[in-house]
Structures are given as C-alpha cells and as structure tokens.
TrEMBL record:
Family: Belongs to the glycosyl hydrolase 32 family.
Official protein name in the record: Glycosyl hydrolase family 32 N-terminal domain-containing protein
PANTHER family: BETA-FRUCTOSIDASE
Keywords assigned: Glycosidase, Hydrolase
Taxonomy, superkingdom: Bacteria
Length: 347
C-alpha cells in the first residue's frame, strides 16, 4: 500500500542517507490551510521529513515543519518547493526552490507564476537547518540567459566523477514554441557554497513544455556507462509533435532520457539523441534509490491522481526497475512483494 502521512497533502520528494538510514524529505501542506482543496497546496508548501524503518516510513517529529518559508519580506517567504540534499564531510546541504510573496506573478506560456530562485540551508543532523547567509545561492538568471525568467526550480545536486558539484535545474527556453522548450540546465561548483551561475544546457526538449524534478546519474555496465535523466511531465506538457508520433507516450508520469554508451573515463555529459521514454504512468516526481551500480534499482513516485481524477497524494510502494544492456529501463515483476523486508536491500 502507498504511504500517507497523517493529515497532510504530500507530493515532490527526495532521499538522503544518514549512515545506513534512508531519509525522505517531501513537500507537504495542511489540508485545512488549503481549505481542503489540494490545488491550493503550492502556496502552502513546507518540508516534511520521514525515515525508513522495519515498519515502513516513520515521520520524524519536529517542533515545526522540517523546513519552512523565510520571514516576511525575504526572498523565500511564500512557500518551499522541490530540492535535494547532498552530504559533504559531516554536513548536509539542502538546496531548495523558493519564491517571494511580493513578486508579481508573470504570465508564462501556460499559466501565471512567480519567478523562482534556489537557496541553500545546512545541517549536521538533518533536523536543525541554518539558512546560508548569501541566499539565494543560485538566483534566477532571467531572460538574459535565454530563459523565460520565471522557471528556475527543482535543483538536483550531485558530485561528479571529476569531484566537482553539479546542480541540475528545471527551466524553460525564452524563445521556444508554446508546447515545447522545457529545459534541464546545470551549474557547477567546486565546494557547494559558491556556484558559477552561468547555466549550461543538458537538454532543451522539442517534446515537452516542462521537464520537472530531474534526477541525473551515470549507470555503468561492463566497460561502458550511460547517462540517465529522469524527469516528470503531465500529459498536457507533451508537444503536438510528440502526440502525433505516439499518443501512448504522452502521459502524466515519470519519463527518462538515456545517452549512448561512452567510456568509463568520460567526464563530459553526452547528448540525448533519442526521444524520451515513459518510465511509468501515474507516478510523478519519481526517483531511484542507489541507481548507479546495479542492474536493478528501487523506484518511488507520488500518486498524481486517484481513480476519480482528483489529486492522488501519498508515496507509492517501492518498485523494482531493471536497467537493460541497450539502455532501456523496464519494470521488473520479480521485485513485487518486497516491501515487508525493504531494509535488507540497503545494507
């Protein structure tokens, strides 16, 4: 069964480890503060925090939410949006999306949105967070960078094989047609607290209006490796061209891009030369746990909608996916029924 925290709407999420314990951070909003309308959750979002135990996910008690918007008048005083956590030495670095209440919404190709920026907070125990004094650490570069000046969110931060740090960010091209131009770009850092704010394009898509909550990793197979980009999109985000080519590949859910194989010592990001494939329909913001080293990995997503078409809420059961030699990723039926003994797969 999926997991639902008590009396909360939950959606986008990410993982981090504390020694051998897997922690889960996620966007949450109180149904009462949303007047029991989940569509209002985006401006009420704070962070929730749970950890995996032998009895399933257990919410970590905090005096307040795990992380909340900033004080009135600050750059992140409206709501906290998606991010990721990376550990360096004994410190955890939380990169997150924020918006300022006093910023006027701007019209994008599909909707009104406030400009988004990316901030940093640090912790030594995953429970007490201190905002970085020079936030936003990755400010929205705006239209001068060829972007739409609004979308700049969902940072997914990893350490590359060259030991530098990479923040992959969801954004959108300024000049793209209305049904395409979704982008994932990246910025680079040597030590996490100072970034080159010049975005480098990982992909500008001719197939999607937006490519949300990215996860990027290398997967090795023998003497070669491939780069994977996991992202989410709604059916309405797919371009007319993609619908014409294959409507079955236009769903609300999680997708992936995969590169051609490259040598193990390659450190540059290879291009994605084929169309994105549906990884799974109906589960959004999907993430793999430890996808790098094995031919199979566990996957989670949140339920986009229930049978009546309303907001689904809740984290899915873990699903096994298999990485095939040709680069495709497929669900594995042999992995079903493992949730009662999930911890044994992480030790």
């Amino acid at each position: 069964m999926p997991w639902f925290p008590l009396n909360q709407y939950i959606w986008d999420f990410w993982f981090t480890w504390q020694d051998s314990t897997l922690h889960l951070f996620y966007l949450q909003a109180s149904p009462s503060q949303c007047h029991y309308n989940p569509e209002r959750r985006h401006n009420q979002a704070v962070l929730g925090h749970s950890q995996l135990t032998p009895w399933g996910w257990q919410t970590i008690p905090h005096p307040q939410p795990a992380f909340s918007p900033g004080k009135p008048g600050t750059w992140d005083d409206l709501a906290i949006w998606s991010g990721s956590i990376i550990q360096q030495d004994q410190k955890y670095y939380l990169f997150y999306t924020g918006r300022r209440r006093q910023d006027a919404p701007q019209w994008t190709a599909h909707e009104w949105q406030r400009p988004q920026h990316i901030g940093l907070a640090t912790s030594e125990d995953l429970r007490h967070w201190q905002r970085f004094p020079h936030n936003p650490i990755l400010a929205n570069p705006g239209t001068a960078a060829g972007l739409d000046g609004v979308a700049w969110r969902d940072p997914y931060v990893i350490q590359g094989e060259d030991q530098r740090y990479y923040a992959f960010i969801c954004t959108r091209s300024q000049s793209a047609p209305l049904d395409r131009g979704g982008m994932v770009v990246y910025c680079v850092s040597d030590h996490l607290e100072q970034w080159d704010n010049q975005p480098h394009i990982l992909i500008e898509s001719p197939e999607f209006y937006q490519m949300e909550v990215p996860q990027v990793f290398w997967h090795k197979n023998g003497h070669f490796k491939r780069l994977y980009l996991i992202f989410s999109a709604q059916a309405k985000d797919c371009s007319a061209q993609r619908y014409e080519a294959d409507p079955s590949q236009c769903v609300t859910g999680t997708y992936y891009h995969v590169s051609e194989p490259v040598s193990l010592d390659c450190q540059e990001f290879p291009p994605f030369t084929t169309k994105a494939k549906v990884l799974i329909s109906g589960l959004y913001a999907g993430k793999f746990v430890q996808p790098k080293g094995e031919n199979s990995a566990l996957f989670y997503g949140f339920h986009w909608s229930e049978i009546g078409g309303h907001f689904g809420n809740g984290l899915s059961d873990p699903l096994w996916f298999q990485f095939q030699p040709d680069g495709t990723v497929s669900i594995s039926t042999s992995g079903f029924g493992i949730s009662n003994n999930l911890l044994e797969f992480f030790v």
